[in-house]
Specification:
By secondary structure, the chain is of the alpha/beta class. Helix content is about 50%, strand content about 25%. It has a single domain, classed as Transcription Regulator spoIIAA, CATH 3.30.750.24. It contains four helices and five strands, in the order E-E-H-E-H-E-H-E-H. It has a five-stranded mixed beta sheet with strand order 1-2-3-4-5, with helices on both faces. Strand 3, helix 2 and strand 4 form a beta-alpha-beta unit. The mean pLDDT is about 85.
Length: about 120
């Protein structure tokens, strides 16, 4: 299961990924994510809720790397993740490192929004 929305006023992309995402669903989520990111300005922030996402296989890992590379090319700013499943956390940390950017981890989407507001206020 996935949902992808954007908030152009805040210049934020919200992504929720849950369950065991297989090939076609993963590809649909990737397309939706890229389409929503296109609605935002460079420097947009991302809140990714993967608190209910189970780790993926190697093919899924490669799909996620491609999406992260696309976000980087589109000028992604801060990335905050909501994570609860340890293996998913490790997998996304590996993706983050390979894609060449940093992210923070929090316990809720509300906490992610607060943290992004803090980061933007400090800019």
């Amino acid at each position: 299961m996935y949902t992808v929305t954007s908030n152009p006023e805040q210049n934020r992309l919200y992504i929720t990924l849950a369950g065991h995402m297989e090939g076609l669903e993963r590809q649909a989520a990737s397309k939706a994510l890229i389409a929503e990111a296109a609605k935002l300005s460079p420097g947009f922030d991302v809140v990714t809720d993967i608190s209910a996402l189970h780790a993926t296989n190697e093919e899924g890992f490669k799909d996620l790397l491609r999406v992260k590379a696309t976000l980087k090319l589109k000028g992604v700013g801060h990335i905050i993740r909501v994570v609860r499943i340890p293996l998913s956390h490790l997998q996304f940390e590996r993706i983050t490192q390979q894609a060449g950017y940093e992210s923070e981890y929090v316990n809720s989407v509300e906490e992610a929004d607060r943290r992004l507001d803090e980061l933007r206020a400090g800019s």
